[in-house]
Automatic annotation (TrEMBL):
It holds the Pfam family COesterase. The keyword Hydrolase applies. GO terms for molecular function: carboxylic ester hydrolase activity. This is Carboxylesterase type B domain-containing protein. Gene3D superfamilies: alpha/beta hydrolase. Keywords: Hydrolase. It comes from Aspergillus clavatus (strain ATCC 1007 / CBS 513.65 / DSM 816 / NCTC 3887 / NRRL 1 / QM 1276 / 107). Residues 17-204 form the Carboxylesterase type B domain.
Length: 209
């Protein structure tokens, strides 16, 4: 796995995606059709293009058929493919807007309270790591603390879970932390999301996407 983990983006049930689908159906004029999916298939490309953007929300859905269960539950209850694996994350993966502002990572008050105990309100200890007491007030007084919590929840925790689970069955399990900043920027905070991609794909100049 080039980066991340098998839990990956938020896995939700079909109840999460249904409202997004309904909004697209309404915007494209298909709400009165007896077969809304077929109607969408027949809508002109330009209409779909202008109306189907729901942001970075189209992740896998646990529908009980194609995906029977959430990955983190499958690890422990249903098993997984016992194969060699290389997986990792970047040091400051979570210092991006998608992770620290997303409404997709739903936790309850008890879980949030528990997470807070793992992260003291000390900027020198939080993401981006190694920047000391530097803060960005315009991003919020708790930016560094919350970014670290988001990283544990979405990237580091799931990566470690997969690596530790596979290591019970497979010797060739390698988990890494990428700590090299993007080469063509001086404005990015920390070693964030996507920093490793150009080098992994032999394009350090980052002149292609």
């Amino acid at each position: 796995m080039e980066f991340g983990n098998a839990v990956g983006p938020p896995w939700n049930g079909t109840d999460w995606h249904q409202p997004m689908y309904d909004r697209i159906v309404n915007r494209t004029g298909c709400s009165a059709s007896p077969d809304t999916l077929q109607c969408l298939r027949e809508v002109p490309y330009g209409t779909i293009y202008n109306n189907a953007n729901e942001g970075l929300e189209w992740s896998a859905a646990v529908d009980g058929t194609f995906f029977e269960e959430y990955p983190q539950i499958s690890y422990s209850e249903r098993g997984l493919a016992k194969i060699p694996i290389l997986l990792g994350t970047n040091t400051d993966e979570e210092c991006i807007a998608q992770l620290i502002t997303s409404k997709r990572w739903v936790i309850n008050r008890e879980e949030a309270t528990q997470l807070l105990t793992y992260h003291a309100n000390d900027p020198a200890l939080e993401c981006p790591y190694g920047w000391g007491n530097v803060t960005w007030p315009k991003l919020g007084l708790m930016y560094k603390r919350y970014a670290s919590m988001a990283g544990d929840l979405t990237m580091r925790g799931p990566r470690r879970l997969l690596a530790q689970t596979l290591a019970r069955y497979e010797k060739q399990v390698y988990s890494y932390r990428w700590d090299v900043a993007a080469l063509n920027t001086s404005s990015t905070i920390g070693v964030g999301y996507f920093a490793e991609i150009p080098l992994f794909f032999s394009n350090p100049a980052q002149d292609i996407t």
